[in-house]
Amino acid sequence: MVHLKILMVGAGGIGGYYAAKLAEAGHEVTLTARGEHLNALKLNGLVVDYASRQTFRHSLPAYSHKELVDSCQARDFDVVIVSLKSTATKEVFAELAEWLQAAKTPVLSLQNGVDNEPLIAEIIGEERVIGGLAVRIGGHILKPGHVVAEGAAEIVMGAWPLKEMNDPRSQVVDQLSREFNAAGIPTGVSDNIRYELWRKLLINNGVNPLSALTRLDTRSLTHHPEFRHVVVGMMNETLDAAKADGVDLTREDLEEMFDLISSFNAIKTSMLVDREKGHPLELDSIAGAVLRRCESMGVEAPYTRLVCALLNHGL
To answer: Is residue 107 a contact partner of residue 82, using CB atoms and an 8 Å limit?
Structure first.
């Protein structure tokens, strides 16, 4: 086993869980966070409750982004994993741009949406970007320093936007996959990660905005006699939008993703949790990504547009 030096940028519900699993396996993990969550991580360490069965406790180095830049260098790490809310990607990468550009460390994004990797590539170059997605996991910060998570918590990753012939990122991706699997994180590798990101957006756009609007969990939405049709409608609109990025999703993709989310645990989506806590919603990076691409092709997206309008008006 190789002991990796890992920076987790954004140690919230998803990042906190993966950080704890990787630390449990003996990897050197450093965290970034902000506010009271950061203060608690520094004082008491990271606590992660997983599926009401396991509790992980780790005292890990934790920094604000300014403290990170002042205390560490990007080349100190084997990989930078980004698990930020997509609403923060642009701001945080502007803060870390010079710091990241001074090294060649690969960056793995584990975020919602399909627009994070392009933003990261603008800062550090496409040749260092690894796209990724967290699948079948629900997680959020219960209180500062304390994260709860559930689900199979799988990861899919790959060179973004596609694996090229003799792609130098392949070696990094394969090593990360091996170490993640050895740490108990089921991880697969894709040669077409953009396709996988759009498949996940089928679920994200299908349930996240609607759950924030209705305040219903995923199981309630997908089993409701009326709302399930809205979920499928928003997934259909995502399927249409993918064509603008040259990704040909099929009806089989939609049905597979609907079956996945409808059979998964009844969870609050991250967007619903954010609304309950009064935090900014990832609406633009999920539904907005669909609307922008549909508009570019002259395709209507009435379900997504209506749910967005209702959320934007505070209903």
So the answer is: yes
Question: Is this structure's pTM higher than 0.85?
Answer: yes
- Return the CATH number at 238: 1.10.1040.10
Q: How many residues does the chain have?
A: 315
Strand-by-strand arrangement of the 54-58 sheet = 54-58, 46-50, 146-150, 138-143
End-to-end CA distance of the chain: 51
- From 145-149, 163-167, 307-311, the region with the lowest mean pLDDT: 163-167
CB 284, CB 113: distance < 8 Å: no
Q: Which residue has the tokens 């609050």?
A: 268
Check residue 187 and give left, alpha or beta (phi > 0: left; psi -120 to 50: alpha): beta
CA distance 298 to 27: 48
Q: Does the pLDDT at position 315 exceed 80?
A: no
Could you tell me if 304 and 168 lie in one domain?
A: no
Q: What span, in angstroms and rounded, lies between the C-alpha atoms of 61 and 32?
A: 8
- The pLDDT value recorded for residue 1 is 66
pLDDT in tens, 198-244: 999 999 999 999 999 999 999 999 999 999 999 999 999 999 999 99
DSSP letter assigned to residue 246: T
What is the arithmetic mean of pLDDT over 73-83?
A: 97
Per-residue pLDDT at 275 exceeds 90: yes
Question: Are 237 and 204 contacting, i.e. CB atoms less than 8 angstroms apart?
Answer: no
d(C-alpha 53, C-alpha 111), whole Å: 25
Q: Are 217 and 224 within 8 A, CB to CB? A: no
Structure tokens at 92: 């945080």
Euclidean distance between CA atoms 130 and 314, whole angstroms: 36
200 and 184 in a common domain: no
Q: Do residues 44 and 33 make contact, with C-beta atoms less than 8 angstroms apart?
A: no
Task: Give the range of the structural domain holding residue 68, as residue numbers without chain letter.
Answer: 5-191
Residue with tokens 């690969």: 106
Nearest to 199, CA basis, from 158, 119, 257: 257
pLDDT at residue 164 is higher than 90? no
